[in-house]
């Protein structure tokens, strides 16, 4: 029982740390750097082509002067090991991406790790 309590305490601690990190200025700064890497830019433009410049949730097609987002289905900070994995990436327009991000903020890493494409589509469509 004692052991269980200590595991659950550690879990709570890590969850709080995760949440705090998700909202820190340092994390934002590192994000900017990460998204500027040549490897990411190349992969992101491949995803634009694979997804035909179309939002995978609502079907909106990218317009001139509009930017779309290559989104991590399981967020990068939740699953860094999938950050450059094409099967964890899809193209979203800004509206759908903002909605997805708002939902992600209310979920735990454990909940986010089991979310699939289909579940996101069902939630956001
Ligand atoms: Zn959309």
Please describe what this structure looks like.
The protein has helices at 2-22, 25-35, 38-50, 94-105, 109-113, 117-124; strands at residues 69-72, 89-92. The N and C termini lie far apart (44 Å). A two-stranded antiparallel ribbon has the order 1-2. It has 2 domains: 1-36; 38-124, no CATH class. The protein is globular, with a radius of gyration of 16 Å. The mean pLDDT is 88. It is mostly helical and 125 residues long. The protein binds zinc ion. Zinc ion binds next to helix 4.
Q: Helix fraction? A: 55-70%
**Spatial extent as radius of gyration:** 16 Å
**What is the chain-wise order of helices and strands?**
HHHEEHHH
Helix/sheet category = mainly alpha
Query: How many domains is the backbone divided into?
Result: 2
- What spatial order of strands do you see in the largest sheet? 1-2
* Average predicted local confidence, pLDDT: 88
Number of strands: 2
- Uncertain runs: none
Give the distance, in angstroms, between the N- and C-terminal Cα atoms: 44 Å
Number of helices: 6
Task: Chart the SSEs and their pairings.
Blueprint lengths: L1 H21 L2 H11 L2 H13 L18 E4 L16 E4 L1 H12 L3 H5 L3 H8 L1
Antiparallel strand pairs: 1-2
The structure holds zinc ion.
Provide a concise account of the structure shown.
The chain has helices spanning 2-22, 25-35, 38-50, 94-105, 109-113, 117-124; strands at 69-72, 89-92. It is mainly alpha-helical. The chain folds into two domains: 1-36; 38-124, no CATH class.
């Amino acid at each position: 029982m004692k052991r269980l309590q200590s595991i659950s305490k550690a879990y709570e601690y890590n969850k709080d740390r995760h949440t705090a990190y998700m909202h820190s200025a340092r994390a934002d700064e590192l994000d900017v750097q990460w998204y500027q890497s040549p490897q990411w830019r190349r992969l992101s433009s491949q995803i634009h082509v694979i997804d035909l410049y179309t939002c995978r949730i609502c079907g909106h097609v990218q317009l001139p002067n509009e930017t779309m987002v290559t989104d991590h289905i399981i967020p990068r900070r939740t699953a860094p090991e999938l950050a450059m994995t094409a099967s964890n990436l899809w193209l979203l327009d800004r509206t759908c991406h903002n909605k997805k991000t708002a939902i992600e903020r209310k979920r735990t890493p454990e909940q986010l790790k089991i979310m699939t494409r289909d579940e996101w589509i069902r939630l956001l469509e």
